[in-house]
Amino acid sequence: MSRGRVWKYGDDVNTDVIYPGRYTYQILSPREMAGHALEDLDPRFAADVREGDVIVAGKNFGCGSSREQAAACLKYAGVQAVVAKSFARIYFRNAINLGLPVLQSEAAADALQAGDEVDLDFVGGEIVSARGTFRFPPLPESVIGILEAGGLLEYTKKKLAAGREPKA
Amino acid sequence: MDVRAGQVVTVSPDYVLSHDNSAAIIQEFRKLGVSRVRSPEKIIIVLDHIVPAADEKYAQNHKTVREFVAEQAIPNFFDINSGICHQVLPEQGFALPGKVIVGSDSHTPSYGALGAFAAGIGRTETASLWATGEIWLRVPETLRVDLVGRFPDMVSAKDAALKIIGDNGAEMANYKAVEFAGPAAPSFSVGSRMTMANMSAEMGAKNGYFNPDRTTLDWLEGRARAPFEVFTSDPDAAYESVLAFDLSGLEPQLACPHTVDNVKPVREAAGTLVDQVLIGTCTNGRLEDLDAAARILRGRKVHRRVRALVIPASWDVYREALKTGTLSVLADAGCVILNSGCGPCLGAHEGILAAGEVCVSTSNRNFRGRMGHRDSLIYLASPATAAATAVEGGITDPRSFA
């Protein structure tokens, strides 16, 4: 169980407001990236976010560009998970590849409100709060290996080390 | 291989695209502990996002990419004088029927216009793919859009795409394939097919697709770089849903701030004052798009309140539009012709919006802050609507220029 505080947003939170294009093609440090998180959606967020906080949003979270910093900046800002009614496809992949848990729960997204305290149980697949306990579907098997390895880079490293490295 | 929707498969794509973000991908690749990419000939890198470099940071990124290309002997590298990747790959004969193409750009589905399976991916997985040659993909369910009827004058593919998204929402095809079919599909030019497939990304789609036909094969003649196999949809293919869309009654459409599915007819916003017009991008920067704008701007002037920017989608398009005189018409009208590239579409350079400014753009996203200040406003429209708006200084239905 891991406790966090909820930041609540609506539907179609897109990658431009999560991580603006003016920074996308600069290579910034994790700390700098965290400082721009949600800059064009909620200017208070980057200053006030705390380690372990949880973002709760509506449908199609992360729609738009393929920019990976839109997942990375939240992770670096200390966000432990994003709970949404649904996720845009590339965002979902990026989050998994970087090790940012993305949890789909329509009921939790409706019920939870800004400032709520929630406990996340990734193993049991539960979100526990004063407003109720919500279950989320287990992640697809194909991505569990990636998460277990700690992200795609580690997963790939292991795969390559296991003798599948191409000859130079 | 026989696969079914919902199945997760490991595939070896024919081509892997990246652009200016290759600099970041290189950084991730270096962490993998391998010295060489697995198949240099499958990697395509196009510098297009901030070209030529707008500042030292972008210049360093480009330099890093060029050095990596030389080090790894990557043959398919396109520098700043090439154009937008989504136009360059088709023109250079990489986007072919039956090919599997993934790219670290969300508008990679554009190549479905030519019958490729093409989907966007992220940076870390691109780095991993460079090293391993493999990626996991979930076989998508398919949503079919049956196009019927004929476009009225001054109405084009962009209007159709916007109306479809407006009617069905930006999440209508999340995780799915969108197949554009129906009796009107063969009448779409390759350029119009690219507009539709490009906009499928704004439907949330994994990929957009047109079945290859005579038009496709004619266009590929002399362009295709590799042998290819044409696949067409099985007659008994299972579709998750089928949507009929009639082009005949369609009028010019506008996506209003700040989402692509906030769509209404242009006439309902007529007169809204505009500071900037952008004609071009991977959505609408082909010769037919520039011609549609030139048809309206010929012999007229851009309104003095408006900055009209034109970005041909590629250098091939640029040179062709020079030869046909289209660029002269646009320049004479007072348009600023910019280098082929992504330009201000993603808010990095060449026409950033100030607070409160309004832009009508032929690009594909109008998200808050995308082209500059978070309090600027972006309306998405067709090249004809953008040109008519440039002339009048306010949002204008192009049918008044018919």
Describe this entry's structure for a reader:
The complex is a heterodimer of chains A (about 170) and B (about 400). Chain A is of the alpha/beta class and about 170 residues long. Chain A has one domain (about 1-135): Aconitase, domain 4 (Alpha-Beta Barrel). In chain A, about 40% of the residues lie in helices and about 20% in strands. Chain A contains 9 helices and 7 strands. Chain A has helices at about 15-20, 20-25, 30-35, 45-50, 70-75, 90-100, 105-110, 140-150, 150-165; strands at about 1-10, 55, 80-85, 100-105, 115-120, 125-130, 130-135. Chain A has a 7-stranded mixed sheet. The radius of gyration of chain A is 16 Å and the shape is globular. The mean pLDDT of chain A is about 90. Chain B has about 400 residues and is of the alpha/beta class. Chain B folds into 3 domains: about 10-135, Aconitase, domain 3, CATH 3.30.499.10; about 140-245, Aconitase, domain 3, CATH 3.30.499.10; about 255-400, Aconitase, domain 3, CATH 3.30.499.10. Chain B has helices spanning about 20-30, 55-70, 85-90, 125-130, 155-170, 190-200, 215-220, 280-285, 285-295, 315-325, 325-330, 385-390; strands at about 10, 15-20, 45, 75-80, 100-105, 115-120, 135-140, 140-150, 175-180, 205-210, 240-245, 255, 265, 275-280, 305-310, 335, 360, 375-380. In chain B, the strands form 5 sheets. Chain B has a 5-stranded parallel sheet, with helices on one face. In chain B, strands 16-15-14-17-18 form a 5-stranded parallel sheet. Chain B has a 4-stranded parallel sheet with strand order 10-9-8-11, covered by helices on one side. The radius of gyration of chain B is 20 Å and the shape is globular. The mean pLDDT of chain B is about 95. The interface between A and B is large, with 49 and 52 residues.
Please name the CATH architecture of the largest domain in chain B: 2-Layer Sandwich
- End-to-end Cα distance of chain B, whole Å, is 50 Å
CATH topology of the largest domain in chain B: Aconitase, domain 3
Major sheet details of chain B: 5 strands, parallel
Structural class of the helix and strand makeup of chain B?
alpha/beta
Number of strands of chain B: 18
> How are helices and strands ordered from N to C of chain B?
EEHEHEHEEHEEHEHEHEEEEHHEHHEEEH
CA radius of gyration of chain A: 16 Å
The low-confidence parts of chain B are none
**Per the principal axes of the C-alpha atoms, what is the gross shape of chain A?**
globular
Count the helices of chain A. How many? Answer: 9
Low-confidence stretches of chain A: none
